[in-house]
């Protein structure tokens, strides 16, 4: 009897706790739904800056990064760095008042946008915006609002977004669609049909609003009036859909494709676009590349920088600094790890077993490991990924610029180069990384349903996807898969052994080169890493780098 009473008492107490827990949970959820967090404007009266503002755009946000979408964690890293650097977000009204009425801006003003009107961008960006008290503009295609693709925001979503203090609504246009897609050597378009898609590198093309519809010889297939009717119809659909969804046209327009208007495009096509833009929008982001807009720019010729999904925080800050001369503190991550290196040029971050060496525009970033000055025999293991551009180097026995052994990875080609005081540069080995010619590339092909005439069928529009990559045959952790479109689909696990005048390199357990002879006069020196690109700021990634002198047994 006593045991039964004890059990009943425990059951009663457990039930009370469950009721309390559920009540608190319900209260918190109800409070959030009924009284969501509000964006705090801050001390707007203290704004005093009148030089300009930066504009950044993200294609979208996902739980994990892919070749286009930034992960929610990396977005958090980016926005934290901007917040710590003192950036304050502004909206379309602030920009309009700045240009029309001379309104002052925050000392570091940021116009933040997300493109394409994706639901996942709204879901994953929202808590990050709340965390740093940032607001953003959600660009979207009006045609997707009425479409049946659940990936994109619909009318109800836009209405909810319109009520949020963290968001405003902008437009990318009515549709994302190509015209005048012609194979570069004028072969029949169907010759390169591949599951309904076309490789962009093999074709010239333009966006639906950017030209006459033409034949393969460039002759217009429509009259001037037909062209005007076609383009006017797109803008009329934008007006109709937005007014039905939220009761007004968005103020900001980010036209596709960028860098076309006010450049070398057909004057009649340009004229009808500008007529509609002036009628329907108050701001036009026409350019992409630079992130910095100044007072001397025009409301209808603004620029933004599209942030890459794989950019490190330091690359983002360096890109901003490159356009604005605004200094922001770079991040180091694991300071103890970074302090082990002597760094010349660029900056280093250490995180999650990765060393990220970021080189400035037109400069090399070089880092020598402290305490390795007299290393002779060396063992090394590292994951290196092939990149679409740029060079990653590893130096062994680095004495100075005239004495070293160098492993270089560029465009999936690995090279071994030695340089001595007496012998100059000598290439000992050069070849593609194993199977690099068979690795699938990021799927940058045309969707046939985006090649358009006068109509759009939203139900057929799908996002491009990365081809599946089968890695079942890979053994002994020879590879790691990558998500970034700036990298090859895998990182290779390089193991290096330099002993005496003999150098061996392995990919996993497979031999790349074995016992290749090196110059016997290059006897000792530092371990160093280096990265650079002729095309701009560059992230060199050295993953799981493990290195040390070989010890005789």
Q: Could you tell me the radius of gyration in angstroms? A: 28 Å
Low-confidence region ranges: 24-35, 188-198, 438-446, 452-479
Structural class category = alpha/beta
Average pLDDT across residues? 83
Shape: globular
How helix-rich are the residues, as a percent range? 10-25%
- Tally of contiguous helical segments: 10
Number of strand segments: 30
- Beta fraction: 25-35%
What is the name of the CATH superfamily of the largest domain?
Glycoside hydrolase/deacetylase
Named at the architecture level, the CATH assignment of the largest domain is Alpha-Beta Barrel
Q: Structurally, how many domains make up the residues?
A: 2
Q: Could you say what the CATH topology of the largest domain is called?
A: TIM Barrel
Give the N-to-C terminal Cα separation: 73 Å
CATH class of the largest domain: Alpha Beta
Biggest beta-sheet profile:
9 strands, mixed
Give a description of the structure.
The protein is α/β, with parallel strands linked by helices and 553 residues long. It has two domains: 276 residues, TIM Barrel; 179 residues, Jelly Rolls (Sandwich). The chain has ten helices and 30 strands. Strands 1, 4, 5, 6, 7, 11, 12, 13 and 14 form a nine-stranded mixed beta sheet that branches. Strands 16, 17, 19, 25, 26, 27, 28 and 30 form an eight-stranded antiparallel beta sheet that branches. The chain has a seven-stranded antiparallel beta sheet with strand order 15-18-29-20-21-22-23, with no helix packed on it. Helix 2 runs parallel beside helix 4 and helix 7 packs parallel to helix 8. The radius of gyration is 28 Å and the shape is globular. It starts with a helix and ends with a strand.
């Amino acid at each position: 009897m006593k045991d039964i009473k004890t059990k009943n008492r425990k059951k009663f107490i457990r039930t009370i706790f469950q009721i309390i827990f559920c009540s608190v949970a319900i209260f918190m959820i109800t409070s959030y739904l009924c009284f969501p967090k509000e964006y705090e404007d801050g001390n707007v009266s203290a704004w005093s800056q009148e030089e300009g503002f930066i504009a950044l755009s993200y294609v979208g946000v996902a739980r994990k990064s892919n070749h286009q979408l930034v992960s929610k964690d990396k977005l958090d890293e980016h926005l934290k760095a901007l917040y710590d650097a003192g950036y304050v977000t502004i909206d379309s009204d602030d920009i309009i008042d700045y240009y029309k009425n001379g309104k002052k801006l925050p000392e570091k003003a940021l116009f933040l946008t997300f493109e394409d009107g994706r639901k996942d961008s709204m879901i994953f960006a929202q808590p990050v915006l709340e965390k740093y008290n940032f607001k953003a503009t959600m660009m979207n295609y009006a045609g997707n609002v009425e479409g049946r693709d659940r990936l994109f925001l619909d009318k109800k979503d836009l209405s909810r977004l319109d009520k949020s203090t963290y968001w405003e609504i902008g437009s990318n246009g009515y549709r994302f669609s190509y015209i005048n897609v012609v194979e570069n050597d004028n072969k029949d378009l169907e010759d390169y049909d591949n599951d309904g898609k076309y490789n962009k590198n093999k074709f010239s093309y333009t966006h639906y609003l950017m030209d006459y519809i033409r034949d393969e010889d460039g002759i217009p297939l429509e009259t001037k009036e037909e062209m005007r009717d076609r383009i006017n119809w797109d803008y009329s659909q934008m007006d109709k859909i937005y007014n039905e969804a939220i009761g007004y046209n968005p103020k900001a327009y980010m036209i596709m494709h960028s860098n076309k208007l006010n450049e070398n495009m057909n004057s009649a096509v340009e004229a009808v676009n500008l007529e509609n833009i002036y009628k329907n929008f108050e701001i036009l982001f026409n350019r992409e590349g630079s992130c910095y807009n100044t007072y001397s720019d025009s409301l209808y010729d603004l620029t933004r920088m599209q942030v890459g999904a794989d950019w490190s925080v330091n690359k983002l800050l360096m890109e901003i600094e490159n356009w604005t001369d605004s200094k922001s503190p770079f991040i180091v991550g694991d300071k103890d790890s970074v302090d082990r290196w002597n760094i010349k040029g660029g900056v280093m971050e250490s995180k999650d077993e990765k060393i990220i060496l970021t080189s400035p525009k037109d400069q090399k970033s070089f880092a020598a490991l402290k305490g390795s000055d007299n290393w002779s025999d060396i063992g090394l293991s590292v994951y290196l990924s092939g990149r679409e551009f740029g060079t990653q180097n590893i130096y062994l026995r680095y004495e100075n610029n005239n004495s070293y052994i160098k492993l270089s990875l560029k465009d999936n080609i690995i090279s071994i180069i030695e340089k001595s005081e007496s012998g100059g540069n000598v290439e000992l080995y050069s070849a593609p990384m194993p199977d690099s010619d068979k690795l699938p590339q990021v799927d940058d092909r045309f969707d046939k349903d985006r090649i358009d005439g006068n109509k759009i069928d939203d139900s057929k529009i799908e996002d491009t996807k990365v081809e599946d990559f089968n890695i079942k045959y890979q053994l002994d952790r020879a590879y790691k898969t990558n998500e970034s479109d700036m990298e090859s689909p895998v990182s290779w696990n390089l193991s290096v052994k330099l002993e005496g005048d003999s150098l061996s390199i392995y990919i996993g357990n497979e031999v790349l080169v074995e016992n290749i002879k090196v110059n016997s006069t290059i006897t000792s020196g530092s371990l160093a890493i280096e990265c650079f690109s002729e095309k701009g700021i560059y992230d060199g990634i050295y993953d799981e780098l493990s290195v040390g002198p070989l010890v005789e047994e």
